[in-house]
Design a protein that fits this description.
72 residues; alpha+beta; 28% helix; 1 helix; single chain
Amino acid sequence: MEEPDKREKMVEVLAFALMPNHIHLLLRQLKDGGISDYMQKMGSGYANWFKEKYNQKGTGHFFRDRFNAVYI
């Protein structure tokens, strides 16, 4: 039997839309600063995975812009 994940949840993903060159997320923040922390972890994790998979080296920005958050 798989052990439950004991990491603290930062956000709840309510909906997402994968677009050809970006993603839309509808998130509910579960802790203060959770959305910013989540986006940083997701962005750096994806960049590291991509660079390793495609044997990319180098430094600098992986994504063109920072994420944009709008309170609903």
